[in-house]
């Protein structure tokens, strides 16, 4: 097993990424597993090469071995549970691999007459329909697109966020380039290969904050909505894929299915990883309440104005949403991208079907523990 840090171009400021060779994920020793875990925390995103023959059962076994105390189920639960309360996320069909039901098939286009037991399935991947202002049909057909939805893989209700996501590229589109446009008035864009996943580091994002902002983030926390993706299922995304348009389309709490207050998730704004690095890890589209403490001795301010919550988060998060900070390393068939889901945001990128089929196997499981911040959330303060 050889870990090689990725050397980014002179136009890049990315601080993450490594490739791993000499590792067969069908047969991982305990020593290599520990090295893989450490490398993923250190480099945040690793590209494990040459996994063309990875058995889906072994794919799932990998993520369970990385967190053996976690419940043995996908981070969003079973496919049935996901369809019932997945809201925004369950608006497209995401089937499971029959031999390994916790492995999800995601992608775009016809997946074949028989894909690991899935018969005649056509995938409809994340679409620019999510945006309030998507590119026109003509512009999209010409290869112009947007980041679809910047996010972490997390249910944010009942289950904990997965530590890792492992995404295997079974088949990647093999035609041409596409142009990702911010379409937010900034004039920013990137030329990339279709079917890639985009990433940015929330450790690097934290480092972009001022000292005053870091202190506020260190001492503050957020509360997520019950069934958060159902709560926002009518909402639309901003043109650059980060955050939502503020249109008041969130469901009222009384419209939501019956929910358990004990399953509501309250997390620090800043998550500290096993190497001691701080990440500004707030999934702003799902935050319902914010608890602000500018200093350790300040009184807590409870913010329930959704517009104000999002404005504050975007004033920080938009800083890293620039081409020099975004990583879209070319992915080859057989690669497994594995990332530290507690310190990375990622986004799919839609593309015209003419560029080819995309086939991915995705695995993650809700963690056995909760994110820890630099400052404990006061137990005396409740929502």
Overview of this protein structure:
- Residues 16-362 form the TauD/TfdA-like domain.
- The protein has 383 residues and is an alpha+beta fold.
- The protein has helices spanning 30-43, 56-66, 79-85, 137-141, 202-207, 211-219, 228-231, 306-317, and strands at residues 2-5, 18-21, 45-48, 96-97, 100-110, 114-115, 118-119, 122-123, 144-145, 164-171, 178-181, 189-192, 198-201, 221-224, 266-268, 270-272, 278-280, 287-292, 301-303, 336-340, 344-347, 358-363.
- The strands form six sheets. Strands 1, 2, 3, 4, 5, 8, 10, 20 and 22 form a nine-stranded mixed beta sheet that branches.
- β2 (18-21), α1 (30-43) and β3 form a beta-alpha-beta unit.
Q: Terminal Cα separation, in Å?
A: 47 Å
Beta percentage is 15-25%
Total of DSSP H or I helical runs spanning 4+ residues: 8
For the largest beta-sheet, the strand count, sense and barrel status come to: 9 strands, mixed
Q: Bin the helical content.
A: 10-25%
User: H/E series, N to C?
Assistant: EEHEHHEEEEEHEEEEEHHEHEEEEEHEEE
Please count the beta strands (DSSP E, at least 2 residues each): 22
Overall, the morphology is globular
Q: Give the oligomeric state of the chains in this entry, treating copies of one chain as homo and distinct chains as hetero.
A: single chain
Low-confidence stretches: none
Task: State mean pLDDT (0 to 100 scale).
Answer: 94
Radius of gyration: 20 Å
What structural class results from the helix and strand content? alpha+beta
Pfam family, one: TauD
Protein name: TauD/TfdA-like domain-containing protein
GO molecular function: dioxygenase activity; metal ion binding
Cofactor: Fe(2+)
